[in-house]
Specification:
Blueprint: H1 5-16, H2 24-31, H3 35-46, E1 51-55, E2 59-64, H4 71-75, E3 88-94, H5 97-106, E4 114-120, E5 138-145, H6 155-173, E6 178-180, E7 184-187, E8 190-202, E9 205-216, H7 235-239, H8 245-266, H9 269-278, E10 285-289, E11 294-302, E12 308-312, E13 317-320, E14 324-327
Parallel strand pairs: 3-4
Antiparallel strand pairs: 1-2, 4-5, 5-9, 6-7, 7-8, 8-9, 10-11, 10-14, 11-12, 12-13
Helix pairs in contact: 1-3, 2-3, 6-8, 6-9
C-alpha cells in the first residue's frame, strides 16, 4: 500500500512536526477534511509501519517512521525535479529491481520512475551474477531513463552513475569511495556497490535505459559469507555506524540528477574528468577478461564514449567496451 492525495498530505504534515502534537481540529482545517476522515487516514498510515500516538485534547503525534524505503519517506525532503518524482514502486521482496523497472519502461513509464526493494531473490550484476541482500540492510533500486543519446554512448550512463554514487557516499558518509571500471564502487579494494545498466533500442535510437544499483549499507562484517568477507564491505563496516538508507538514496538521486543534466546539456567531459579522479585505473597495468579472450596491457585513457583504452604488451591499441578488470600492479602505477 502507498499513500496519495489527502492521506499523503496528512503524513507530510505530521512528518514536518515530528515529535509535536497536532490537534485533529488543526489537521481537519489545514486539509479540508472531516475529523472522521483524519482518523481513517491515520489508521492507514499506521498500517505502513508509522508509529502515531493519539490522545484526547492533544491530537496526534508521529513518534517513529519505519526503516523502509517507502515512497512517503523518499519523497519527504527529496530535492530532485525528475528522479524519483515520476512514480515510486516499492517492493518488500522482488526478484530484481531492474526486471521490474524494465517492465514499467516497456509499458511507457516516464523518465525518473524509481523501483526500490527491501530485498531481492534474483538480483543481477554483470554477466548474470547474483546480487543478494538481506531485508533492511541494502539499498536496492533501479531508475527508468529515456536519454536522447546515440546507443553507442550508453556506457556513459554507467560511468555517470558511478560518479554520482561515489560522490554521494563521500559527501554523506565520509568514506573513501572509489570507482573500478566499469561498474563497481570500492572502498579499500573491497566491493561496496555494483551498477547494472541495461538498454532497449528502437531502430538506431535509445528507447529506454535502466540503471540499477545494489549498495551494501547496514550489513555487518560478520554477515558476509566467509568466501567474500575479504572482498566485500558495507557503509556500516567502513564507518562503524549505521546509516539511513533513505538519506543515502536521496543524496544519490540528487547527485545523479545533477550529472544526468550535465551529460545531456554539456556533454561528458566534466563527468569523465571526475570519473578519472575517483578511479586510479588510467596508467595502470591490467588484465581484462572478456567473453572470448583475455588481454594484458596498460590503460591509456577512457574515451569520450566511456570505453576503456588499453595498449597491450605487444603494442596493440584496443578499445574495451566490457570486461572484468584485474589490477596487475595493485600498489600503484
Amino acid at each position: 500500500m502507498t499513500l496519495s492525495g489527502k492521506r499523503q498530505d496528512l503524513l507530510s504534515t505530521l512528518r514536518s512536526r515530528t515529535g509535536h502534537w497536532v490537534s485533529g481540529e488543526e489537521l481537519s482545517g489545514e486539509l479540508g477534511i472531516s475529523r472522521a476522515a483524519i482518523s481513517k487516514h491515520i489508521s492507514a498510515i499506521k498500517g505502513l509501519g508509522y508509529a502515531i500516538s493519539s490522545a484526547p485534547g492533544k491530537g496526534y503525534l508521529l513518534t517513529e517512521a519505519p526503516d523502509l524505503l517507502l515512497a512517503e519517506e523518499i519523497l519527504f525532503g527529496l530535492g530532485t525535479s525528475v528522479m524519483g518524482k515520476n512514480g515510486i514502486v516499492h517492493h518488500h521482496l522482488t526478484d530484481s529491481t531492474n526486471t521490474r523497472a524494465r517492465e514499467l519502461a516497456r509499458d511507457g513509464a516516464p523518465e525518473g520512475t524509481l523501483v526500490v526493494a527491501e530485498s531481492q531473490s534474483a538480483g543481477r550484476g554483470r554477466k548474470g551474477r547474483s546480487w543478494l541482500a538481506r531485508p533492511g540492510e541494502g539499498l536496492l533500486f533501479s531508475l527508468v531513463l529515456r536519454p536522447d543519446m546515440d546507443p553507442s554512448r550508453a556506457a556513459l550512463i554507467t560511468l555517470m552513475t558511478a560518479v554520482s554514487v561515489a560522490e554521494a557516499l563521500i559527501r554523506e558518509t565520509g568514506i573513501d569511495a572509489r570507482i573500478k571500471w566499469p561498474n563497481d564502487i570500492l572502498v579499500g579494494g573491497r566491493k561496496l556497490a555494483g551498477i547494472l545498466t541495461e538498454m532497449s533500442m528502437e531502430l538506431d535510437a535509445v528507447d529506454y535505459v535502466i540503471t540499477g544499483l545494489g549498495l551494501n549499507v547496514n550489513t555487518p562484517t560478520e554477515a558476509f559469507s566467509p568466501d567474500i568477507r575479504d572482498i566485500a564491505t558495507s557503509v556500516m563496516a567502513e564507518s562503524s555506524a549505521p546509516f539511513s538508507r533513505v538519506a543515502l538514496l536521496q543524496a544519490i538521486l540528487s547527485s545523479f540528477e545533477t550529472h544526468y543534466h550535465t551529460l545531456a546539456t554539456q556533454g561528458p567531459e566534466s563527468i569523465l574528468t571526475r570519473w578519472k579522479e575517483l578511479s586510479d585505473i588510467v596508467g595502470r597495468r591490467v588484465r581484462v577478461s572478456m567473453m572470448r579472450e583475455e588481454i594484458e596491457g596498460r590503460v591509456t585513457d577512457i574515451d569520450a564514449d566511456g570505453v576503456l583504452l588499453v595498449t597491450t604488451d605487444a603494442g596493440e591499441a584496443l578499445r574495451i567496451l566490457s570486461g572484468d578488470v584485474t589490477y596487475l600492479d595493485p600498489s600503484g602505477h
